[in-house]
């Protein structure tokens, strides 16, 4: 057992070193690798939100669709507090900026944390009425609150804070590709520690059978509220990361389709698997970009291929997703997590299938 632990530690360190090496290679020439860097940064951001959604949907069994609203709160708080003071007059050129906000500024990381806290506070209030609902009713209620949040941020009374429908720009971006990846790694690590704690076991008990969990002494509403708040906090942090990545936002950025994209990542990776959410995030974001060549006209031997036109990429992308879902109905990882033993076991099973009948491997 100790030998396996030593092996796993060495392999994990080597994997981390390899990832850092790849990131350093891209960072060495950002102009040449800007495309790959943007995919990595967006995937890391979506991974945080997907794991946060999985914490609620997969590990606690609460079907929430309010992620876009909490991302919007975190994004706007982060954006408002990080826009340089000297350029704010250029951003709020139509309605002006609130006097108390004019010189209020924060570094990026504290602003993201504050954005997460604002999202968590909103979740605490929203959770009081909606967490008494179950299944589809909870999903519809949280979806409705997400749209209310988005409408509130764009309301005329918020113009001097959020700049209303004009949105926010001049948001400082990430200094390098390591920054979003490290922030995402820390957020995911904290959520993993929570999932493996006594609170995480209580969340899983509620997911399996809430009546039995209550009979064991678990306070259902308290733990559901706690899971909802924690998930919303990290979703807000993810929204702040998205604002920094995009460098300009408006309320249209956080429409319901954003929640559906996150849900797609969770389902594709595996509901109840942190590793699956991370893999799903990179596959979804990378797949959408790698298939972009299908949107360009293609000519072979002077003959134009009619299928290659704008929009064909999403057709192929949707077909590939359908194939994955048909063959892996529980997602790529199901409810399992990545382990080195599992990886080596997979190779051993493949070798046994290839070996002759009765032969030894």
Query: Uncertain segments of ≥5 residues (pLDDT<50)?
Result: none
Order of secondary-structure elements: HHHHHHHHHHHHHEEHH
Globally, the shape reads globular
Q: What does the average pLDDT come to?
A: 87
N→C terminal distance: 23 Å
Helix content: 55-70%
Largest sheet: 2 strands, antiparallel
What would you say this structure looks like, in words?
This protein has 361 residues and is mainly α. 67% of the residues lie in helices and 2% in strands. It has a two-stranded antiparallel ribbon with strand order 1-2. Strand 1 and strand 2 (303-305) form a beta hairpin. Helix 2 (34-57) packs antiparallel against helix 13. The longest helix is centred in the N-terminal third of the chain and has 27 residues, at 2-28. The protein is globular and about 70 Å long.
Walk me through the topology.
Elements: H1 2-28, H2 34-57, H3 67-82, H4 88-91, H5 108-130, H6 135-153, H7 159-162, H8 178-195, H9 198-208, H10 210-215, H11 220-246, H12 256-269, H13 274-290, E1 298-300, E2 303-305, H14 312-327, H15 340-354
Antiparallel strand pairs: 1-2
Helix pairs in contact: 2-8, 2-11, 2-12, 2-13, 3-5, 3-6, 3-11, 5-11, 9-11, 12-13
């Amino acid at each position: 057992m100790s030998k396996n632990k030593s092996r796993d530690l060495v392999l994990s360190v080597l994997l981390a070193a390899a990832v850092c090496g790849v990131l350093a290679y891209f960072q060495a020439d950002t102009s040449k690798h800007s495309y790959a860097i943007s995919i990595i940064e967006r995937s890391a951001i979506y991974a945080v939100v997907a794991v946060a959604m999985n914490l609620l949907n997969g590990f606690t069994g609460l079907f929430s669709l309010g992620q876009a609203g909490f991302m919007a709160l975190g994004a706007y708080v982060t954006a408002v507090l990080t826009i340089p003071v000297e350029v704010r007059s250029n951003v709020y050129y139509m309605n002006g900026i609130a006097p108390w906000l004019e010189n209020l500024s924060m570094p990026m990381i504290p602003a993201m944390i504050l954005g997460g806290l604002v999202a968590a506070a909103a979740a605490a209030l929203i959770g009081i009425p909606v967490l008494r609902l179950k299944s589809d009713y909870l999903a519809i209620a949280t979806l409705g609150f997400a749209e209310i949040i988005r409408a509130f941020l764009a309301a005329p009374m918020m113009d001097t804070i959020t700049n209303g429908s004009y949105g926010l720009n001049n948001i400082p971006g990430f200094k390098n590709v390591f920054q979003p990846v490290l922030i995402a790694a820390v957020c995911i690590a904290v959520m993993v520690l929570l999932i493996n704690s006594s609170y995480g076991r209580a969340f899983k008990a509620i997911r399996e059978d809430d009546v039995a969990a209550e009979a064991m002494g678990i306070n259902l509403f308290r733990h559901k509220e706690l899971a909802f708040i924690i998930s919303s906090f990290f979703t807000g942090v993810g929204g702040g990361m998205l604002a920094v990545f995009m460098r300009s936002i408006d309320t249209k950025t956080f429409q319901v389709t954003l929640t559906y994209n996150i849900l797609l990542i969770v389902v594709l990776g595996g509901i109840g698997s942190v590793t699956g959410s991370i893999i799903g995030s990179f596959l979804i974001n990378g797949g959408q970009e790698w298939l972009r060549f299908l949107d360009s006209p293609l000519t072979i031997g002077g003959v134009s291929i009619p299928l290659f036109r704008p929009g064909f990429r999403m057709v192929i992308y949707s077909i590939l997703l359908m194939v994955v879902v048909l063959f892996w109905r529980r997602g790529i990882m199901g409810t399992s997590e990545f382990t080195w033993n599992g990886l080596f076991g997979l190779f051993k099973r493949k070798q046994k299938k290839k070996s002759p009948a009765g032969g030894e491997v």
